[in-house]
Amino acid sequence: MLKVGLITVLLAIELTIYYIFGGLASYPFRVLGYGFLIFWYYSIRKNSINLTDKLFLITSSFAIISPIPAYILAPIIGNLTEFFLIMIGHVFIILIFRIEGSKIKFFDKQNTFVTILIPYILMPFAFFVAVILPIKSLLVVFVTGIYLLEMVYLLVLSAFVPFSEKGKLYISLSMLFLVLASGANAYRTYITDFGFNYGVVRVSTSLFRLFLLLGMLYRNEK
């Protein structure tokens, strides 16, 4: 609880500074928050670290470096580069699930097609059709479409991870917040940046990372 409390405090400080001074001023607290998650994971797994753990530490580091281009590059180039780095981070998560034995089997008794179809496929594509397609920018539609395909594959793959029940629960929660964060960020970037949209994105992204970490830590719990 103390660890979660520390992450919560760092996130609250980050958001407070963001709404007062802007994104660049709040970035160090994002680094501290994600850096602590990396330290937390490594401190528990350091004596039995394997390839999966190394890949998880790598993908966690992308959460730290991905925002940098948006601060130092021109808006369009910066946003595209950040998008690209986020997608690379997701590739490492896909690799982790594959290494751990996740295989997509739609007719698995424990993972029905309908259960996966609605939250992991239909809802993301419905958002894409309703919000992104009306945007008259081929670049936006193309880039977001690629991101969507990768995310949907990651979501579906996560439903078949052979983890413990607690591990599966945490992974499912992490994917839920990944969808929420992705949708809110796309709306904020391409439609309009309303009041606390950034807060929704940051809280959702942080919960995605936190639950992913817990899922990985409890993956072999019996």
From TrEMBL:
Residue ranges of the TM segments: 5-21, 27-43, 55-77, 83-101, 113-133, 139-162, 169-187, 199-218
Keywords: Membrane, Transmembrane, Transmembrane helix
Name by which UniProt lists this protein: YhhN-like protein
Organism: Emticicia aquatica
